[in-house]
């Protein structure tokens, strides 16, 4: 596999998922970018915009093990990680793995689970391992969590803590479809097209190869300084009590490399960082005034910082190519 193969993979996935999902090409590119960069994804928007459908469609297009977990207030950590049970036939305790032992995990309505259950995801999302009863079990690569949540329904929900939000490489908003896209959705509804009509078109081996190859994409030191300037600006912003962590800066770097590779380039450009700054950084900001946090102004602050930060010249960042 080479960079051109990764660009072809990107186009094929968009066309493949496009059989079920109308529009949302940019959203699908962001999702694949996060998957290639081994990052977790949080899909957030109002009900009925296709969050779960998109996650299931992407999972159906990848030849990997898949588990869907419907998060509810009565869900326990052991329901996710698994349990040891006594086997009367063998007379021994055996381990029954939970749904987290899969390559792709759909955490549907993640903010409906209690903080105790949400916290059980922290170790597996960051370290790709699960500790149960004093023993540690490694998760097979790839391991990606795609979570969904509804931003407007507060009843019966538990907001994700900052530590949990920081584990997601991207938070992506679906948005409403255009008029033309809405008409096409209705047409496909009558045609009974569904996720069941999709078959895997990217193998696990191809995905693992892509996850290793994207790291060879060149990032000029001036662009690294640019990423640091953006993150430092969030920490100095007067409206924020917490800016972007070093983990967030690393996530933006990795996402930019994966984005460049999926667009057929072996080097990162400033525009790659500009495109990814909002989905990678905005959800990591914590406002001094929590009311403003709920108004969705984080994206505006990121755009403001982008407009005020000097961009490295193309000659410097591409080595004169």
From TrEMBL:
What the entry lists under SUPFAM superfamilies is as follows:
P-loop containing nucleoside triphosphate hydrolases
User: Gene3D superfamilies, from UniProt?
Assistant: Magnesium chelatase subunit I, C-Terminal domain, P-loop containing nucleotide triphosphate hydrolases
Q: Which Pfam families match?
A: AAA_3, AAA_lid_2
The residues covered by the ATPase AAA-3 domain are 40-170
Q: Domain (ChlI/MoxR AAA lid): give its ranges.
A: 233-305
Its signal peptide is none
CDD domains membership: AAA
User: What InterPro entries does UniProt report for this protein, alphabetically?
Assistant: ATPase_AAA-3, CbbQ/NirQ/NorQ/GpvN, ChlI/MoxR_AAA_lid, P-loop_NTPase
Q: What is this protein called?
A: MoxR family ATPase
Organism of origin: Paenibacillus barcinonensis
């Amino acid at each position: 596999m080479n960079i051109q193969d990764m660009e072809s993979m990107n186009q094929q996935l968009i066309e493949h998922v496009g059989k079920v999902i109308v529009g949302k090409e940019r959203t699908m590119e962001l999702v694949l970018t996060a998957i290639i960069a081994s990052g977790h994804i949080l899909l957030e928007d109002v009900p009925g915009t296709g969050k779960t459908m998109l996650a299931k469609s992407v999972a159906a297009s990848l030849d990997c093990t898949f588990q869907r977990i419907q998060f509810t207030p009565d869900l326990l950590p052991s329901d996710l990680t698994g349990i040891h049970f006594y086997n009367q036939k063998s007379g021994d305790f055996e381990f029954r793995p939970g749904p987290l032992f899969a390559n792709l995990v759909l955490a549907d309505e993640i903010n409906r689970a209690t903080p105790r259950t949400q916290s059980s995801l922290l170790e597996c999302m960051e370290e790709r391992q699960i500790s149960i009863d004093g023993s540690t079990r490694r998760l097979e690569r790839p391991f990606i969590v795609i979570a969904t949540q509804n931003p407007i329904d507060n009843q019966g929900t538990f907001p994700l803590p900052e530590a949990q939000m920081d584990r997601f490489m991207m938070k992506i908003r679906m948005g409403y479809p255009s008029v033309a896209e809405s008409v096409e959705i209705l047409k496909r509804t009558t045609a009974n097209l569904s996720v069941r009509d999709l078959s895997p078109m990217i193998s696990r081996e191809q995905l693992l190869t892509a996850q290793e190859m994207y790291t060879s994409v060149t990032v000029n030191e001036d662009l690294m300084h640019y990423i640091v300037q953006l993150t430092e600006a969030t920490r100095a912003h007067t409206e924020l009590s917490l800016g972007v962590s070093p983990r967030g800066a690393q996530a933006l770097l990795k996402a930019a490399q994966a984005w460049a590779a999926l667009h057929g380039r072996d080097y990162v450009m400033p525009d790659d960082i500009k495109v990814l700054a909002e989905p990678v950084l905005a959800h990591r900001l914590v406002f001094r005034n929590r009311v403003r946090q709920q108004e969705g102004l984080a994206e505006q602050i990121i755009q403001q910082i982008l407009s005020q930060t000097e961009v490295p010249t193309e000659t410097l960042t591409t080595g004169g190519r």
